[in-house]
Amino acid sequence: MDYIEVVDRYVQLRVEEFIAPVVWRSGGNLFELVVAVVLSQNTSDKNAFKAFNSLKRALGSITPEAVAKLAEEELAALIKPAGMYRIRARALKALAEAFLKHGITPQRLLEMGAERARAFLMSLPGVGKKTADVVLVNIGLPAFPVDTHITRIARRWGIGRSYDEISRWFMDRLPPARYLEFHLKLIQFGRDVCRARSPRCGVCPIGERCPSFKSAGRSPVI
C-alpha cells in the first residue's frame, strides 16, 4: 500500500474547514475565490474566514467594482483578522483593478487551459504559484497546489523538495478529478498528524514505512 492510498483511506475530509472550496461551492464568483485565497496566504483558514466574512458583510457581494471603490484604509480594517492587512489590502486593490481591466471570468480561464491560465494568473498582483494553482483546481482545471503542510510531508516522505517537483509527483500518481480532494486531505493530514512540531508518528497510518518516522513509545497504527 503506497503513501497516497494510506492517507486517502485514513483521512476523513472536513472540507468545511477550507475557505477556497467553501467560497466557490457556495456560489461565490471568481473574484471572491481569488480574494479568499489571497486572504489565506500565510495564515490559517480560520483567520481567512473571519476576514472574508467581514468583507462580505460590508459589501454584500465581493466584486472588483466594490473593492476598487473602497479606500485602502477601510479595506485593510475589514480584513484585519487575516493579518498583514495593509499588505493584503494593497494586493486586493491591485487585483480588483486587474480584474476590471482584463475582464477575467471562469470561462475565459477554462478556455485558456491550465498552462496558459496559470501563467496569466501569475502575472496578476499578489498571485504566485500556489495561489494560481488553488484557483485553477477549484474551478476544474488540472493543478496540484503545494502549501507548507504538503511541502513538509513530501520532504519527510523523501519524494521531493521544490514546489514543482512535489506538485508533479502527485499529479503523476492521481487522476485529475482527484487533485483537489487529495490536496485538501494532505493539508488536513499535515494539520492533524504530520505536524511541523511534535509530529504524531505514534498514530500515523504510515508508521515505520516513513523515512522520517520517530518512535513515540508505542506501535504505529497501520
From TrEMBL:
Transmembrane segments: none annotated. SMART domains: ENDO3c (SM00478), FES (SM00525). The keyword Iron applies. Keywords: 4Fe-4S, DNA damage, DNA repair, Glycosidase, Hydrolase, Iron, Iron-sulfur, Lyase, Metal-binding. Residues 39-192 form the HhH-GPD domain. One of its GO terms (molecular function) is DNA N-glycosylase activity. Its cofactor is [4Fe-4S] cluster. Its EC number is 4.2.99.18. InterPro entries: DNA_glycosylase, Endonuclease3_FeS-loop_motif, Endouclease-III_FeS-bd_BS, HhH-GPD_domain, HhH_base_excis_C. GO terms for biological process: base-excision repair, AP site formation. It is an enzyme of class 4 (lyase). Belongs to the Nth/MutY family. This is DNA-(Apurinic or apyrimidinic site) lyase.
